[in-house]
């Protein structure tokens, strides 16, 4: 068996056995996807299927998952038997509203306690309100929730959220829905290097290369919605994101070459056949 074959098999094995652990739950996919902004539920279901995601986040204040019996139910295309539904508090601007939203989700989903907390500070940039986020996180954790938390890229805040018991830290790569990619790689790296719980980029991803970069940095996963839903072909983009997550994770395991200021030839500069 050649060294190349052995290396290829090692890489395949590493990715096959690469499990994302969030609280007491384990997942094989490191891509998390949202359910908003698609043209209809059929497209929603097709794109999510193509993404290979196992965790699907749902905005409880904007999406019907049983609150309204006379309206289409998202769970008809995103079955809880197949996916882990991750209720989120999108549209909440204070801790009390976010807490009530999570409690409603728990009732609708028969006691499900894994939630994504986001408390926004501004309707224009959707940047997180950290004071309200910290308050809501404390209340939810005390109430028995497993909290995945959307936050800024401040390493001190990230560590505080982890210390109080959040099961995953989710710093933004850039503003929600902006598609600007990762504008803060250094601060993301600081959060990753100091975290003992999963760190997932949440917000800002615009295309597959952004997702790959996040994984190359060492992120444990990426959550996205707009990058897929607003693509010209959402299903194809979902497939691209699926591959990007795997490629970025493999590159992280492999370890990139050092960056250099000067060129270094790929082949030796001596020993030519013809001098």
> Tell me, what's the shape?
globular
Widest β-sheet, arrangement of strands = 5-4-3-10-9
Fraction in beta strands: 5-15%
Total strand segments: 10
The total count of helices amounts to: 9
Q: What's the order of the H and E elements?
A: HEEEHEEHEHEHEHEHEHH
Query: Structural class of the secondary structure composition?
Result: alpha/beta
Spatial extent as radius of gyration: 20 Å
Q: In terms of per-residue confidence, which ranges show pLDDT below 50 for 5 or more consecutive residues?
A: none
Can you characterise this structure?
It is a single chain. The chain is α/β, with parallel strands linked by helices and 275 residues long. It has nine helices and ten strands. The protein has helices spanning 3-16, 41-51, 95-108, 130-142, 155-164, 185-194, 208-217, 226-229, 234-254; strands at 20-22, 25-27, 31-34, 55-59, 84-88, 114-117, 146-151, 168-171, 200-202, 221-224. The strands form three sheets. A five-stranded parallel sheet has the order 5-4-3-10-9. Helix 3 runs parallel beside helix 4 (130-142). It is globular.
